């Protein structure tokens, strides 16, 4: 019962972060859930809420075909990286430590406002590589943001295109991870049921976040969000190191 209350709180918070920023549901949910369960269990809980909220984000923007034509090599790379790495990385003893390091790296990049620009001629080469790296990390940690989000930012989409591109990337990452979890028998009926239930607080949090978006300075919210992720990442990394 205590875990059910905690899971509800986590998905409300993670949904609110996504409602404000357009991203962050997998990152916040997996980071907080990993404090009380294994990363693979946290990833299994994430499947349905992530599919639903990212599907909503993906379909609420412009027509998808131009985006798919541009980003399909990255999406294929995400699928390949997740499926290949999932065979070895899923529920590995170092997964919590890898998650912590990925969160710290992502937070530092965000706080330092590091920005890259991908030259048009390099996109064809870098897109599949960014996809494979994202898939491999998501298979190990359940977090889809590194290096997908910094790479998509480097492509210099406008704000609405970037939000939609992130939704596409997270959707493909979730589907690939769900296939790996199912193939490894890690998505048991009880966990699948909890995942379906978790979509309700996630949607409630997302609606709340969308209402808060216009009332909170985005820069302040983003800084607090990144600092919180860094603290969580350091906690998970140190906890793993001390085991």
What keywords describe this structure?
243 residues, 10 helices, 0% strand, mainly alpha
Give a structural overview.
The mean pLDDT is 84. The protein contains 10 helices and no strands. By secondary structure, the chain is an all-alpha fold. It has one domain (2-242). 79% of the residues lie in helices and 0% in strands.
Q: Which assembly state applies to the chains in this document?
A: single chain
Number of self-contained structural domains: 1
Largest sheet: none
Helical percentage: over 70%
**Cα distance, first to last residue?**
27 Å
Kindly state the mean pLDDT as a whole number? 84
Backbone CA Rg: 17 Å
Shape call: globular
**Could you spell the SSE succession in H and E letters?**
HHHHHHHHHH
Indicate the structural class.
mainly alpha
Count of DSSP-assigned helices = 10
Number of strands: 0
- Beta-sheet strand percentage? under 5%
Low-confidence stretches: none
Short description:
With 243 residues, this protein is mostly helical. It has helices at residues 2-21, 25-33, 39-59, 65-89, 95-111, 123-141, 148-154, 159-183, 189-212, 218-242.
């Amino acid at each position: 019962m205590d875990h059910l209350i905690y899971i509800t709180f986590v998905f409300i918070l993670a949904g609110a972060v996504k409602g404000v920023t357009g991203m962050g549901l997998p990152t916040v949910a997996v980071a907080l859930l990993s404090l009380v369960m294994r990363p693979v269990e946290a990833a299994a809980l994430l499947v349905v809420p992530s599919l639903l909220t990212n599907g909503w984000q993906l379909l609420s923007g412009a027509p998808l075909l131009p985006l798919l034509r541009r980003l399909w090599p990255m999406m294929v790379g995400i699928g390949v990286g997740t499926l290949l790495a999932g065979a070895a990385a899923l529920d590995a003893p170092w997964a919590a430590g890898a998650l912590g390091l990925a969160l710290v790296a992502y937070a530092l990049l965000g706080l330092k406002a590091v920005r890259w620009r991908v030259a048009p001629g390099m996109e064809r080469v870098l897109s599949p590589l960014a996809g494979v790296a994202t898939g491999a990390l998501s298979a190990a940690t359940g977090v889809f943001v590194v290096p997908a989000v910094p790479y998509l930012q480097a492509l210099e989409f406008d704000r609405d295109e970037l939000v939609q591109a992130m939704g596409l990337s997270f959707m493909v990452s979730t589907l690939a991870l769900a296939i790996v979890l199912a193939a490894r028998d890690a998505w048991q009926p009880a966990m699948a049921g909890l995942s379906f239930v978790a979509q309700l607080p996630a949607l409630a949090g997302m609606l709340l976040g969308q209402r808060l978006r216009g009332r909170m300075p985005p820069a302040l919210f983003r800084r607090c969000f990144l600092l919180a992720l860094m603290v969580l990442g350091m906690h998970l990394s140190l906890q793993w190191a001390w085991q």
